Amino acid sequence: MDGTNDSTQGNFILLGFSDRPHLERILFVVILIAYLLTIVGNTTIILVSRLDPQLHSPMYFLLTHLSFLDLSFTTSSIPQLLYNLNGRDKTISYAGCAIQLFLFLGLGGVECLLLAVMAYDRFVAVCNPLHYLVIMSPRLCMGLVSVAWGGGVANSLAMSPVTMHLPRCGRHSVDHFLCEMPALIRMACVNTAAIEGTVFVLAVAIVLSPLVFILVSYGYIIRAVLHIRSASGRQKAFNTCGSHLTVVSLFYGNIIYMYMQPGNSSSQSQGKFLTLLYNIVTPLLNPLIYTLRNREVKGALRRLLLGGREVRKE
After folding, report:
1. What is the distance between the alpha carbons of residues 172 and 231, in angstroms, rounded to a whole number?
2. How far apart are alpha carbons 259 and 109 in whole angstroms?
3. What are the two backbone dihedrals, phi and then psi, of residue 12, each rounded to the nearest 5 degrees?
4. Which residues contact 124 (CB under 8 A, 6 or more apart)?
5. Is 128 helix (H, G, I), strand (E, B) or coil?
6. The whole model's pTM is what?
7. What angle do CA 2, 5, 6 make, to 5 degrees?
8. pLDDT of 69-103, one tens digit each?
9. For residues 103 and 139, what is the distance between their CA atoms, to the nearest angstrom?
10. Cα→Cα distances 260→116, 156, 196, 248, Å
11. Quick check: 196 and 262 in contact, CB under 8 A?
12. How many whole angstroms from its chain centre is CA 81?
């Protein structure tokens, strides 16, 4: 009997940062604080966007989905990481590992596609403002969001089973803090060139294609903004697009490095910290980016917090 599915008989061991035991307690505190702030920040964005009538627009509908996505993304792995950092037990069940991999791949793919949808929203808002609400109808917004979620789930359905069923010849130690695809590929005791090639092709479809679309959209946006004569009009356009561009830069800077070079070609230690940045820091910063750079969100927050007091003051 070979070792093809021997990992299904027991747990995986997430090595995480166990090679740096002096850092584990520090990481636990920092990550716990960051995770709690991520929950508060993204939940606030969702509540403000839903409760304030002035934010019932396509842009904030998409932002709500981004915040929900960030909440789901961090929750898929950070609680397990906190548990492992807080004690000697580094194990995760086979089923837990499979679910974690599925969510990580799926939600990451959804975010790539959703950022492209948000870029299209900004393109229509800047380049065709008079017809913005007609073009970005509730039906189209829901359809685009559904495509983003469907594409991410389809990508995960294609790659998760293949990755989990790779022969590992009794290896149970995952050199990462979560069940992430490159780390699981490195555990295989067979030639993984075919699956790495498949990963690259899917990465082009799920990661690079939306990025190209975003860049092309912003090419048209920049051209349109340069034709705006009003300085205040240009500033408003740059403000609404600047937040999205900042989020895109944070997200893609990490994901391209990790997933365009799977397997043994990337630094394992560096990959852990990049994944941590991608998994906790970016979802933490997204609400701050949209809040600090957006007058409408700040105004909605004031109205939500002050309630009738602001109305009486006005």
Report:
1. 60
2. 11
3. -95, 155
4. 131, 132, 135, 136
5. coil
6. 0.85
7. 75
8. 999 999 999 999 998 888 788 889 889 999 999 99
9. 27
10. 19, 16, 9, 17
11. yes
12. 17
d(CA 186, CA 223): 45
Evaluated on CA atoms 228, 234, 237, 243, the torsion sign reads positive
Determine the Cα–Cα distance for residues 181 and 203; give it in Å rounded to an integer. 12
Cβ–Cβ < 8 Å for 268, 186 = yes
The mean-pLDDT minimum among 120-124, 129-133, 228-232 falls in 228-232
What's the Cα-to-Cα distance from 41 to each of 36, 55, 291, rounded to whole Å? Answer: 9, 17, 9
Evaluate whether 256 touches 212 at the Cβ level (below 8 Å).
Answer: no
**What's 205's DSSP letter?**
I
Other beta carbons less than 10 A from residue 105's beta carbon: 24
Helices (H), the chain: 21-51, 58-75, 78-85, 94-127, 132-135, 138-164, 181-186, 193-203, 209-226, 231-259, 268-276, 282-292, 295-306, 308-313
Residue listed under structure tokens 């002035």: 54
What CA–CA distances, in Å, run from 231 to 41, 69, 228, 291? 32, 35, 8, 22
Strand, helix or coil for residue 233: helix
* Greatest CA separation for the chain: 78
Contact yes or no for 237/221 (Cβ under 8 A): yes
* 54, 300 contact by CB (below 8 A): yes
Instruction: Give dist(CA 273, CA 177) in Å, integer.
Output: 10
Note every long-range contact of 222-231, with CB atoms under 8 Å and residues 24 or more positions apart, other chains counting.
224/126, 224/127, 225/126
**Residues near 83 by Cβ (< 8 Å), separated by ≥ 6?**
89
DSSP H or E run through 173 = strand 173-174
Residue written as token pair 């409760």: 51
Question: Lowest mean pLDDT: which of 103-107, 138-142, 258-262, 263-267?
Answer: 263-267
